[in-house]
Prior knowledge:
Layout: E1 8-11, E2 18-22, H1 32-44, E3 49-52, H2 69-82, E4 87-89, H3 100-105, E5 109-110, E6 115-119, E7 122-127, H4 137-146, H5 149-156, H6 160-180, H7 192-202, E8 206-209, E9 216-221, E10 224-228, E11 242-247, E12 250-255
Helix pairs in contact: 1-2
Amino acid sequence: MVDIPVAQRLSAPAQWQTVDFVSDLHLCADAPRTTAAFAHYIRHTPADALFILGDLFELWIGDDARDEPFNARCIDWLQAYGRSRPLFFICGNRDFLVGPALLADAAMRALDEPTCLSAFGHSILLSHGDPLCLDDKPYQAYRREVRSAAWQQAFLARPMADRLAVARQIRADSRVRKEAEPDLSKWADVDADEARRWLHAAGATTLVHGHTHRPGDTPLGDGRWRMTLSDWDLDSPRDRAEVLRLDAQGWHRLPVRPVD
């Protein structure tokens, strides 16, 4: 059990008719079909606001990488949306080094972890989800280390090539662990008791999060629910991507198709 963070508060303006939630896109040059699908989606979504709940990028080693060709293309797509409609972002475990320069270039507004959104009569707690995976003790120790100001200052002071090498090694180590246990049901999941505590403290009824790559809706009792976002992976046999949409009629899970 950890201290419950105080949730930032956000209310949907009356003119919003549709809100979209996505996470775990893991955009990178090695995932061209996923990247193309996101580019098509963000250009054509009717959503009045878009919430990206972490792991937008597979790797983010610092805002000085935003001019790299692949990153610059992604930023252009984000900026085109964010200049016309609200675009919100909660960092994930892969892109926690997103800083003010990228946020400004991409026209994104950073939100706290967690944030409580009131929209269409719903009180929704938004999180990437990783702080709630309490059983993943090695990851929680790692998270505490890399989220510290001292670690981030030291890491960002290193040459870009060094940072990229470290990030790629972390990515490779993660892939090895996942391949050793391909059954997602055996991976650490959000702790239900902790989720209930967060919801109660925030006065919210629905937790929306990513991170676990196990999309679905889970009752938590007392009228509370956990809605897990899909990861986006259109470059493997899993062939999966999804948007969670909320409007006045309720919740909708919308599959995202490849564009090629």
